[in-house]
């Protein structure tokens, strides 16, 4: 007789690995199914070119919950971090760069180079305090069930508080930045973070919310005794071995608790009997039974493609069908036969620090807005906004001696094109990214040995990301709190008894923190205890 597991988990991405660990620790039998041949979901290290390995989709793990890292004993299972002196670098026109050093004194001196007056120096820290104050007043913990928008709004009681709330939730981030700052470069530094991962421009209403995500996360961690102050992620932790080293350590930790992980297992549908999820069916026809099913896949895919409308219910199915994905990202990978030389670097030592940072090109609010405007009409900007990381700067074993692998995230790239197809246009996108980076790394063409592109369509095909949306849906007002992924599913339960969600499309999103998996596991354990 075939085994019945306590839970089958769809997808071995980081959130599924986290949830599986906590469920296994509680004594549950856990089967985890991954459609690809490697665990990790989008958080994987892969060989893109012969001899060149690196982070193929997700770039950074700086949001990883320290408590999860400790509980899962990831260090024991091989995870090592490099903690570079410089976490990030923002590149501007004319070969200039802003290095936001973690040390506030050194950062202040750097800000003064771009300031147009005293207002900018104080305003830079004023922006940080503005969002930190809103986060404190909001009093929302990522570890708790999400509140409604009305409940959150009612916590802002004074006229000044309500004004701040309205600006963050309903106004464009450009309005806030232009109030505090005159320097276009300092404005762009914040705006680049505000529009990252979302199909949104800095002059779009609601674009300020993403700058609140990190302060809310820090307040959430502080509420459980974890202090990890990292203002807008100006610190960075680089996993040795690339981003996949994190999920590989998670998988080993899971397996040490008895979690069974199967790769190359494509879940086609969720089996429901008598109104309850009781297992999954694979594409090859195999059926696997479980008392509960937890999906780490995209919530829209889970609810509309793995279930029928009658199984989910007509009204929830209609809501799920209307979840907007609007993918806005592509990936470009570069193989380099040599070391990049940044135009802004004044010494070999500084260039080495720049190579080890999470660097991005975000010249101005207007350039960021123009890229968004192009995307809304089905075109990609020939001057793309990019964020990149060079894993080989921290782990030379990822590339041949003296060589480097660069993983580039390209923003403002539409899934739906007005003209042509992505299969025809992706090479041109890759060249546009190379041209953009060459403005800041003049020796790039002379050391470039290979360029590989994942278009939004490729990300959908290869990683099951609808429209290539790596966040499983933009993290914007209307898609947060109890509306993530949709009303009725924000507490990790679904309308189908026994079926739960744990991916980043669930509240609070929060990228590679692991918190959605942690919360979903706790919810399942609590529900099981009540049933028993």
Question: How does this structure look, described?
Answer:
This protein is α/β, with parallel strands linked by helices. Helix content is 37%, strand content 18%. It has 19 helices and 18 strands. It has helices spanning 14-25, 66-71, 104-114, 118-138, 149-153, 159-170, 173-180, 184-194, 210-223, 244-256, 299-305, 309-312, 314-321, 348-355, 365-376, 422-438, 444-447, 456-463, 515-531, and strands at 4-10, 30-34, 45-49, 52-55, 81-82, 88-92, 96-98, 238-239, 260-263, 267-273, 276-282, 287-295, 329-336, 358-361, 385-389, 404-411, 448-454, 499-501. The strands form four sheets. Strands 1, 2, 9, 10, 11, 12 and 18 form a seven-stranded mixed β-sheet that branches. Helix 4 crosses helix 6 (159-170), helix 4 (118-138) crosses helix 9 and helix 7 (173-180) packs antiparallel against helix 8. The longest helix has 21 residues, at 118-138. The radius of gyration is 22 Å and the shape is globular. The model has no long low-confidence stretch (mean pLDDT 95).
How far the N terminus sits from the C terminus, by CA atoms, comes to: 25 Å
Q: Which stretches of 5+ consecutive residues score pLDDT under 50?
A: none
What is the average per-residue confidence, as pLDDT, rounded to a whole number?
95
From the alpha-carbon coordinates, what is the Rg to the nearest angstrom? 22 Å
**How much helix is in the residues?**
25-40%
Please, what is the oligomeric state? single chain
CA-based shape: globular
Main sheet: strands, sense, barrel: 7 strands, mixed
Report the strand count. Answer: 18
Q: What is the number of helices? A: 19
Strand content: 15-25%
Structural class: alpha/beta
């Amino acid at each position: 007789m075939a085994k019945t597991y306590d839970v089958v988990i769809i997808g071995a991405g980081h959130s599924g690995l986290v949830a599986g660990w906590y469920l296994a620790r509680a004594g549950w039998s856990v089967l985890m199914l991954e459609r690809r041949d490697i665990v990790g979901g989008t958080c994987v290290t892969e060989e893109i070119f012969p001899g060149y390995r690196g982070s193929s989709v997700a770039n950074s793990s700086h949001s990883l919950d320290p408590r999860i890292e400790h509980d899962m004993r990831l260090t024991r299972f091989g995870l090592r971090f490099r903690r570079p002196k410089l976490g990030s670098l923002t590149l501007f026109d004319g070969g200039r760069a802003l290095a936001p050093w973690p040390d506030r004194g050194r950062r202040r001196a750097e800000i003064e180079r771009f300031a147009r007056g005293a207002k900018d120096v104080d305003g830079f820290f004023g922006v940080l305090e503005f969002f930190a104050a809103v986060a404190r007043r909001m009093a929302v913990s990522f570890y708790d069930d999400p509140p409604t928008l009305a409940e959150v709004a009612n916590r802002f009681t004074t006229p000044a508080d309500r004004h701040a709330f309205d600006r963050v939730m309903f106004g464009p981030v450009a309005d806030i930045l232009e109030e505090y700052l005159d320097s276009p470069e300092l404005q762009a530094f914040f705006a680049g973070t505000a529009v990252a991962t979302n199909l949104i421009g800095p002059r779009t209403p609601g674009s300020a919310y993403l700058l609140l995500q990190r302060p809310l996360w820090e307040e959430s961690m502080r509420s459980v005794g974890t202090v990890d102050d990292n203002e807008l992620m100006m610190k960075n932790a680089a996993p040795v071995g690339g981003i996949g080293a994190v999920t590989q350590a998670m998988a080993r930790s899971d397996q040490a608790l008895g979690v069974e992980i199967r790769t190359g297992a494509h879940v086609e549908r969720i089996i429901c009997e008598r109104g309850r999820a009781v297992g999954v069916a694979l594409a090859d026809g195999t059926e696997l039974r479980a008392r509960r099913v937890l999906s780490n896949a995209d919530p829209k895919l889970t609810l509309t493609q793995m279930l029928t409308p009658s199984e989910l219910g007509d009204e929830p199915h209609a809501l799920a069908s209307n979840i907007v994905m609007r993918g806005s990202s592509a990936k470009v990978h570069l193989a380099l036969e040599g070391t990049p030389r940044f135009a802004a670097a004044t010494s070999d030592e500084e260039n080495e620090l720049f190579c080890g940072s999470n660097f991005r090109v975000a010249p101005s609010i207007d350039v960021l807005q123009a890229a968004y405007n192009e995307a809304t009409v089905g075109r990609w900007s020939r001057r793309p906004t990019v964020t990149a990381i060079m894993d080989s700067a921290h782990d030379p074993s990822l590339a041949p001696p003296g060589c480097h692998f660069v993983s580039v995230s390209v923003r403002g790239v539409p899934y739906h094109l007005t003209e042509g197809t992505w299969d025809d246009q992706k090479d041109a996108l890759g060249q546009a990214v190379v041209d953009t980076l060459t403005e800041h790394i003049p020796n790039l063409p002379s050391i470039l040995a290979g360029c590989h592109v994942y278009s939004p369509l490729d990300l959908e095909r290869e990683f099951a990301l609808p429209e290539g949306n790596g966040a499983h849906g933009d993290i914007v007002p209307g898609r947060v709190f109890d509306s993530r992924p949709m009303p009725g599913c924000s507490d990790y339960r679904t309308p189908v008894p026994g079926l739960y969600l744990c991916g980043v499309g669930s509240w609070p999103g929060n990228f590679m923190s692991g918190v959605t998996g942690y919360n979903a596991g706790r919810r399942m354990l609590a529900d099981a205890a009540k049933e028993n």
